Amino acid sequence: MASAATEPTLENGSARYVAPSNGSAGTLAFTADARDHSGIRSPKVLVWPASS
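and the corresponding structure tokens:
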């Protein structure tokens, strides 16, 4: 019996951003719990500025 396709789910997401200062690079860290009935094989994250 085939089951209906489901969308992957993301839960418990959080982000931490530290702006560049005094010549040092800034950092962005993102964490989340990802689930899908077929598994998560190769996640990709695209960071896009809110002002765009």
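(Above: one complete record from the training split.) The first strand starts at residue 9 and ends at 18.
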